[in-house]
């Protein structure tokens, strides 16, 4: 774990992100931000369960906690998966242009490199659903954290979509590229507004002193 990207300290990860290195990059950062969004959902849940005031939703919140923990773990794993997917692509691009194997290597590595950001989008979409539920059922004391989580999830979803598009834009086999872009666009269309609504509703409540 210590040698993994997610096993590093926050400072070390940020240093690696800032360095002249191919990984971690935008996809890994998106996965980490999605995991933080899930963690904030869990934080709000932990302050809710066991409280008499929320007894009627206690089991619902416990279910959200279990799901949020799963999504957080998957998103952290996707930090590593994104890095693993990019390294072969970087190697493929380094093959001399006159080598006939270059095109096939680049195309295959490009497809593989899209797997992680699409998975990040799928996981983050589910985190947004959990944040919506926590917004409705979680303790009022932690609603600011739920709002922050929703805004982080929005950023993660958008960022992962950019990582998809950078891989599909030059892919020669257009049907695959169109399919990948359609999935990314579908996730953006279905979940961005929902994440923003949670964040904005929390902010509005805080501004009016709710």
Automatic annotation (TrEMBL):
The record's section on SUPFAM superfamilies has:
Methenyltetrahydrofolate cyclohydrolase-like
Q: Where is the Cyclodeaminase/cyclohydrolase domain?
A: 9-185
State the superkingdom: Bacteria
UniProt xrefs under Pfam families: FTCD_C
Output this protein's name.
Cyclodeaminase/cyclohydrolase family protein
**Source organism:** Kribbibacterium absianum
């Amino acid at each position: 774990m210590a040698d993994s990207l997610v096993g590093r300290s926050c400072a070390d990860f940020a240093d690696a992100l800032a360095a002249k290195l191919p990984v971690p990059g935008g996809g890994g950062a998106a996965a980490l931000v999605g995991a933080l969004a899930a963690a904030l959902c869990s934080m709000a849940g932990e302050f809710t369960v066991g409280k008499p005031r929320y007894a009627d939703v206690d089991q619902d919140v416990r279910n959200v906690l279990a799901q949020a923990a799963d999504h957080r773990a998957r998103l952290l794993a996707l930090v590593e998966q994104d890095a693993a997917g990019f390294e072969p692509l970087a190697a493929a691009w380094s093959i001399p242009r006159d080598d006939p194997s270059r095109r096939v290597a680049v195309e295959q590595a490009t497809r593989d490199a899209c797997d992680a950001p699409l998975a990040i989008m799928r996981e983050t979409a589910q985190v947004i659903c959990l944040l919506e539920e926590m917004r409705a059922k979680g303790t009022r004391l932690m609603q600011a954290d739920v709002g922050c989580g929703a805004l982080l999830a929005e950023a993660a979803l958008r960022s992962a979509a950019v990582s998809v598009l950078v891989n599909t834009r030059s892919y020669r086999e257009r049907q695959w590229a169109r399919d990948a872009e359609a999935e990314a666009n579908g996730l953006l269309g279905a979940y961005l507004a929902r994440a923003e609504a949670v964040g904005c509703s929390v902010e509005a409540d805080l501004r009016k002193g709710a």
